[in-house]
Specification:
The protein has four helices and 14 strands. The protein has 281 residues and is of the alpha+beta class. The strands form three sheets. The chain has a seven-stranded mixed sheet, with no helix packed on it. Strands 3-2-5-6 form a four-stranded antiparallel sheet, with no helix packed on it. A three-stranded mixed sheet has the order 4-1-7.
């Protein structure tokens, strides 16, 4: 009798442990809008941003997740992130990732409108995959909602405008004879010479801490002129350009470097556009 009681207690404890700390097996497949499997797509726990596994060469995956996780994310380079919410009864997941298109020169509202249009094709794409035997189920067992990125894009646009105002102010305060520091990153690409290839910092960078920089003195300050193809008879001024004479390479032992295919040497003059690349006074 005592043995039975002990066994019953241990059984109840194990059942409770499984309910709290148990796991579940999730299988499925990840494909793109061309109905091809996506190799290497990552599956993550959206609540904790923890990786749970990845798809094989055909897009199939088989993962084990702790109980309580009901939000998964599917990520692959070149595709939009797919976030889904799964009920306890959903153990086989078939997901379609949409391409991460380039929406250049469009408003955030227009971008979301086009993204939502693509999102609206998911149901038909899933049905097409089912009819072709790529998916095993006609409908999904999870919920997936369209996620606007307009607020995020608007915030980025706001910060960029603020940064451009700061660049305009910095350019106006710049004078001929001023010493400038042009920060760069060292790529250390060999071109069979002693020269090293460097990459200038973007003008949008707000950091002023750089291990390496070109130190120079401003010799000329001007704005470039150009003509717009829509208004060929009107001349526009663009950019925040100046010419500087290279004095030294700070924190570097070499006397020359390669930038955009051109060799930069001490004592030579070069053109710089503050609208594109960072310059610090």
């Amino acid at each position: 009798m005592q043995t039975i009681k002990v066994f019953l207690i241990l059984y109840l404890i194990s059942m409770n442990f499984t309910q709290i700390y148990g796991q579940r097996n999730i299988k499925g497949r990840i494909i793109d809008d061309s109905l091809d499997g996506i190799m290497g797509a990552q599956i993550i726990d959206k609540n904790n941003n923890i990786g749970l596994g990845q798809a094989n060469s055909d897009g199939f995956f088989d993962i084990v997740i702790p109980n309580g996780i009901n939000k998964l994310g599917f990520i692959q380079l070149g595709y939009e992130v797919a976030n889904i919410e799964i009920p306890d009864s959903c153990n086989y997941i078939e997901v379609i990732l949409l391409p991460d298109f380039d929406y250049d020169f469009m408003s955030s509202r227009k971008i979301d409108k086009l993204r939502k249009k693509e999102f609206g094709k998911l149901q038909q794409l899933h049905l097409d995959a089912f009819k072709k035997g790529i998916f095993t189920k006609e409908t999904t067992c999870f919920s997936r909602k369209f996620e606007p990125i307009k607020p995020e894009l608007d915030e980025i646009s706001k910060k960029m405008k603020e940064r451009m105002k700061q660049i305009t102010k910095e350019y106006k305060e710049l004078c001929v004879g001023d010493t400038v520091y042009i920060p760069f990153s060292k790529n250390w690409v060999s071109d069979n010479t002693e020269n090293k290839t460097i990459t200038l910092w973007s003008s949008l960078s707000i950091s002023k801490d750089s291990d390496s920089a070109i130190e120079g003195v401003v010799t000329q300050k001007y704005r470039k002129c150009y003509r717009n193809f829509r208004f060929p008879f009107i001349t526009f001024k663009k950019g925040y350009n100046f010419t500087y004479k290279v004095l030294i390479f700070r924190n570097c032992k070499f006397t020359s470097a390669v930038l955009n295919g051109k060799t930069i040497q001490i004592g030579h003059e070069f053109e710089h556009d503050m609208r594109i690349f960072k310059a610090i006074r």
